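Please review this one:
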Amino acid sequence: MHISPHTDHLIDVDATRAKMEQIVADKGGDAKDFETRAEILALLKEMLQAGRDRAEQLLHEDGLGILCAIRLSYLEDQIITLIYRFAIEHVYPVNNPSASERLAVVAVGGYGRATLAPHSDIDLLFLLPYKQTPWGESVVEYILYMLWDLGQKVGHATRTLDECVRLSRTDMTIRTSILEARFIDGEKPLYDGLIDKFDKEVLRNTSAEFIAAKLAERDARHTQQGNSRYMVEPNIKEGKGGLRDLQTLFWIGQYAYRVRRGKDLIKAGVFTQEEYTRFKKTNNHLWTVRCHLHFLTNRPEERVTFDVQRELSSRMGYQPRPGHSAIERFMRHYFLIAKEVGEITRIFCAALEEDFGQQAPGINRFFAAIPFPNRYSKRKIRDAEGFLIDHGRISVVSETVFSDNPVNLLRIFELADTENLSFHPDAMQAIHHNLRLIDNDLRNNPEANATFLRILTSRRDPESVLRRMTEAGVLGRFIPEFGQIVAMMQFNMYHHYTVDEHLLRAVGILSEIEKQELEEEHPLAHDLIPNIKDRVVLYVAVFLHDIAKGRPERHSPAGAAVAQELCPRLGLNEEQTEKVAWLIMEHLTMSQVSQTRDLSDRKTILDFCNVVQTLEKMRMLLILTVVDVKAVGPGVWNGWKGQLLRTLYSEAEPILTGGHSQQSRDSRVARIKDQLSTQLEGWSQKEIDQYLDLHYSAYWLRTDVANAVLHAELIREADKKNQKVATSIKAYEFEAITEITILAPDHPRLLSMIAGACSAAGANIVDAMVFTTTDGRALDTILINREFDEDRDERRRANRVVDLLVQVLRGETRLPPLVDQKESHKKRFKTFRTKPKVSINNDLSNQATVVEVEGLDRSGLLSALTRTLSALNLDIASAHISTFGERVVDAFYVTDLTGAKITNTDRQKAIEASMIEAMIGPSKPNQGKGKRKGKS
């Protein structure tokens, strides 16, 4: 067999065959002997491993993944050939084989393409002329058992030539596998007969059927994988923009154009030489990542998860740059390649549509980013010289429409939006050929900028049009600052998409809110947006809020500086520009305050009002905050975050409008007490008066009437039953949280024990409210993330948490071992480098010191933090828990045991050091025995 220069030195076939024959000779010629087989297997295992090691070494040397896949396929071919030849010559020899005692070993599926990832399955077809014979069955069984004993996963089928043809007519998977069938060894005429019969009886006149099936498969696969090529943990094989997309194109090319090699698509007129070069480049890069990934994980791993990205970037030679880690540069290159796959798909399908569009209308889905109605074949667009509608899609009369007037490179997208049209492939091709026309002259052209601004602020579907502009390369060139963040990922578990994808999704969500489509999910934003005075400011701010990601400096002030430069170019006046810059500067403020500050603390609200200053700015900031959080990724937004934002807004609104902001604390406490008194049905006045004296003012200021009623009934019932520990559960479907209230004897480690029990039970705490009664009991409320959709299921789960909690509080269960059981839960967080930080601030609250910690999340962390604070003799008035992927930001409002702030510098340093130690790793329970102060 001819040895390719790419596959030389992987295995010495002749030497290996000679060794195999020598083993048989040494055993007296008995090839079926168990020891003979064991020695043959050991030899082949050694050869296979040596070949794989050599392939990995060459991958490190030349960095060419496609050659690695070819080498591994060649190595597998040789191993299978050696086994097959050994089987028919030594184990089951036939001196005069009959016509039925013939066999062809054929590679199919991915292996049939002569490319093989390090841990991919081996797909084999054992091809027979007629029905199976005992000889054929024995040979096939010998080959398979040898491969299995070599540790390989083999997909296999044994079929006659007629069976292959018959089954491929009705089964598209079998049809696709035979389409890529490649001869390995055995009876070559059998294989040739299959290819000829398959071509005549299956392929002919069925191209449209095959194309439609493969496009449907592609759509279903993309939906299953998240339907975005910009997922930050992409599936390199099955994800959008991955290898399977390129393989689908080649399958269709093979089928529709009867080609066997990729470069034959040039002769078929599908690709130009330059386009085919791009095809090979993207294919090679994806194969390079995939081969490194398989070698690194030592398994058939296809997802580029966070825990492998660091090592992959190192293996592939990426180096850090200012503002970008090596990992982020590696992943950005990956996403640019995935984007290129999309462009190649568009080019390929343009050719398909030209040749097969009428027979396979499903091809049109590749261009239907915007739904369009059926229209007559071709017509001009009024007041749009040079453009026309071709079968319901916008196209150009000729490419000179762009060179004659480069503004048309933007106008075509505005027309697509206003006319509700998708793009004809000819138009996209023409745009691609004229991208060089987007220069500084066009960027500074007032008409071009006004056109872009109308696209961005469209009341129809701005996200879809901006997405097409991005895919076409227009948006990144016209707004170079946007071009810098195209395909940029952030190496963290919080953001699910690349920066550009996040911004486009944010614009889309804003458009949905403005069209009143998200009332149920975002009621306050829904109510506020009709009152926004300048929607242009809001749209531009949403589009630009993360535009400075990836720079060495903080992205919020850097983004505000970008807005100061860019907004006047887009046509915004000075006042609008200042508003956009302010929104970008403060776009994280409202989520940070709502999630990490005590919203019942008057100073929190006053400080926030000093930042926003006007009701209009707060309205816009709230809407920007909602779309920003929701566009991060699936599951990041929940109703509890929405409730926190609404609470902050409602607390700040009267201050900004000059309403009831001067209302005294005493009058607010008196009002809620009066409201509660009227709702305590069946209570005597004496009982009511005694209960109202049970709580300090902080409780009344931070608790609404509905919850105050529930607490009153809980405490009254516990007193009747003489219960030391009592609990209640309330599930909130809309907010996506479950509230657990615990009444127990007060002591310093209570919140720590509660946090530990929740951690052991797998419950994620998102907030905590801590109150102490005048008779020395604690009334603590924790909010945990909801896990089940049905209230019945969620309550069962919450009851399990409560049962464990009660056991811990009663001393029936020791907590530390339970927490330790969960320590392996977040092993993958170890790949992140997050330095723990602790800040101690006395300016955020008039009553308490705020201890804020930031660092890497781990199971049992909250328990460790609260345990540490208790050991330091600090009283936790409230805790605010925020998780951003692998990173936590927790804020604790604390006082000393006399109810005073922590002002001593040495004590502050001791708190900081202890909290840093707790952040770094699991700490042992400290037996501090300070009594929690009775006033929270």
